[in-house]
Amino acid sequence: MDDFVKNAKGSESRDVYKWWHKQIDDFYNLPEAKKWYAIDIDLCLVDFDKGILAFLDYKKPTDKITSAEKVVYDELLEKGYDVFLIVGELPKIPQVYKYTKGGGQMFVSNNCIEWEMNLRKL
Fold it and tell me: What pTM was computed for the model?
């Protein structure tokens, strides 16, 4: 990855858009928009030869999986993709849990860096 991509910390415009999307019902007087659910998945691991390796969602230890996330994660599983929850308090190296259908989690690793290195070697 080039230095520009490596040093890009986040997108203020993306965060503004996510906030704006949550406000559509109020901004545009569209009460039905209260039922427009969305999620953002933090990372999609990609290999240029193998394609999509996995979808990752970062959670703090007290974060819960939302109902909307369950819908998306379950559908990704049905389509054959793996979903992993990366759980921890950065900058400490987080743990890895594999999401299982219906909202379950299976512990995989105490070290997400080593886990990803092994995943990319497969």
Answer: 0.87
